[in-house]
């Protein structure tokens, strides 16, 4: 689905299923007088009463250094309610949340980075609470209908969207490019020609990292998804997600080989780090850092990577690092953009839990989060977000990229596939691929894991 200029304040419309308009149970109050009475930004939270002394345990994949802006954005919630947020970030969250659901050791709230994981939790564990009316009403007001669909399972709405990101970016050093006379490529062919040009100077054009704890491999799935959108188009991408075509379809193989022409090329990678196989063991947070030392020139990674540059790094078009749009094969057919986001699932309906859900689904939180992220790397599909609060150039670039009339946005494919594939075999087999396994065996193995 192409996005148009109707995209306002980083709000997005995506292809997806429709959600139910029915909210869950009405909000509960702890009683007493809310600490937020009469305070700006607290208007929607006073209904929950005095929550002083209560704690909301949040479990998420968002870890340091990206976690600090999350924590800072909760200060108003504490001011308004008296409750505090107990933050638990883990790179193993996607796997461990299922284990914890089965053992009964659940947090109050989890930020789920895949709609497929939400589906698995709802259908296989029955632990996720349907979203309360306050949250459903907020999502109806501030988010696009399709975003609500991503947070729904079998027509019931469970999880409000949180943040959004653009994955179709290539990070680079504007100074390094200017000093060498390199131009930002506008097509895939130009990207490959630039890679050859950089390699000819004795510099590895690319650096990458795919290690992410139990989620190791996901950066490689993003590479394939971006390539498929550029070689086969959005319709094929949609068919692939739904398994209307098999995972080992020739079109998927073509896209993976296109990625391999970069990532499995010893002349191209892994600048400042090691050989091709080192990609599998390099933490994704570290993958692009050799750009700062001039040891590599480009790093394909999402907008949220902005938070991983060392403190003091200038992220701007004329700064130490910035990003450009990963070019497509044929610009006349539109600009494919891959992206993702998180969804807020709750496992109980205690007043403090519902209050925090309500806060996170509001325009108030979206603007608090924007102001708490001066280093960049965060945008939201919340239509109440004031673009003036996006102080970072990379966040503004994300909004501009999404608002481009030629943009064709698709949600991260692995996030929409069944968990057995999207957050399991796809990740693992891509690691096997980057460490030597061929394309055919990789895709055949993933195909054989698709649930019947």
TrEMBL record:
Keyword match Transport: yes
Stored InterPro entries: Bact_solute-bd_prot1
Gene3D superfamilies xref list: Periplasmic binding protein-like II
Keywords recorded for this protein, A-Z: Transport
Region (Disordered): 21-41
Similarity comment text for this entry: Belongs to the bacterial solute-binding protein 1 family.
Listed name of the protein: Carbohydrate ABC transporter substrate-binding protein, CUT1 family
Gene source species: Nocardioides terrae
